[in-house]
Design brief:
It is built from ten helices and ten strands. With 234 residues, it is of the alpha/beta class. The chain has a domain of 124 residues: P-loop containing nucleotide triphosphate hydrolases (Rossmann fold, 3-Layer(aba) Sandwich). Helix 3 runs parallel beside helix 6. The structure holds adenosine-5'-triphosphate and magnesium ion (MG).
Length: 234
């Protein structure tokens, strides 16, 4: 579904990603794991067309999407849930969800279908649809950020550290939902520092450090690797 070939990204003179290659097959949950400043967010921003590629190539469903703009990329079904969630705190839960359907606004029935899926996965969003989003708990805001992404009818859902700042019971709930979404057909790319939990729901994982992929493989192999043991002990 997605192929990244030798992707290099610079901020000014400094490289944040160095010849990163990665691929995602339809139906997989793929994890990208690494410490702070490894380049995880940069990779998602580049896939979304927000940060510019210096060298390399990104293809999605056999089409070259390197350096398309964010609007074009969202329209193709690559939907990014940013680090820190970025919901609109003064808008209602429902209005936040509707904003996620912007690219689908002209397609008949898509908004209703999106709301139905978001509310089915997160019944709390339906109960609180008229509440200001800023009054939700952190866990509920993450659910809203995922719900908003679902409104864009993603083919590939990309999440940047969804566990950040959340209480353990919310983290478990979010991860259980991601697994459920995958079992009903969603392809998911998740960037995380919560290593064992993320690998427990993933089909494969990549380890990134200092802008380079250090290792790729099945969760059981990664968990036994020195690279992951080193990261867990940081
Ligand atoms: N807008 C920017 N301008 C300049 N340098 C940046 C910018 N954003 C990130 N960087 C640098 O690029 C490198 C990778 O940062 P990035 O945010 O991608 O890492 P990360 O793995 O997402 O880290 P974290 O776990 O802290 O979220 C870091 O050295 C960072 O300082
Ligand atoms: Mg980050």
């Amino acid at each position: 579904m997605l192929q990244i070939r030798k992707l290099t990204v610079h901020y000014g003179p400094l490289p944040a990603l160095k010849e990163v290659s990665l691929e995602i097959v339809r139906g997989e949950i793929i994890a990208l794991i690494g410490p702070n400043r490894a380049g995880k967010t940069t990779l998602l921003l580049t896939l979304s067309g927000i940060t510019e590629t210096t060298e390399g190539r990104i293809t999605f469903e056999e089409e070259d999407i390197t350096n398309l703009n964010p609007h074009q990329i969202v329209s193709k079904g690559l939907i990014h849930i940013p680090q820190g969630r970025h919901i609109f705190p003064t808008l209602s839960v429902l209005d936040n969800l509707l904003l996620g359907a912007y690219v689908k606004r002209k397609e008949k029935g898509e908004i209703e279908k999106g709301l139905e899926s978001a509310y089915r996965l997160f019944p709390k969003l339906s109960e609180r649809k008229d509440q200001r989003a800023g009054t939700l708990s952190g866990g509920e805001q993450q659910m809203l950020a995922i719900g908003r992404a679902i409104m864009g009818r993603p083919k590939l859902l990309m999440l940047d550290e969804p566990s950040l700042g959340l209480a353990p019971r919310f983290i478990e709930e979010i991860f259980a939902t991601l697994k459920k979404m995958n079992q009903t057909g969603s392809t998911i790319f998740i960037v995380e520092q919560e290593i064992p939990l993320t690998l427990s729901i993933s089909h494969r994982g990549y380890i990134i450090r200092n802008g380079r992929i250090l290792k790729e493989g099945a969760p059981s192999i990664l968990l036994e690797s020195q690279e992951v043991k080193d990261l867990i002990s940081i």
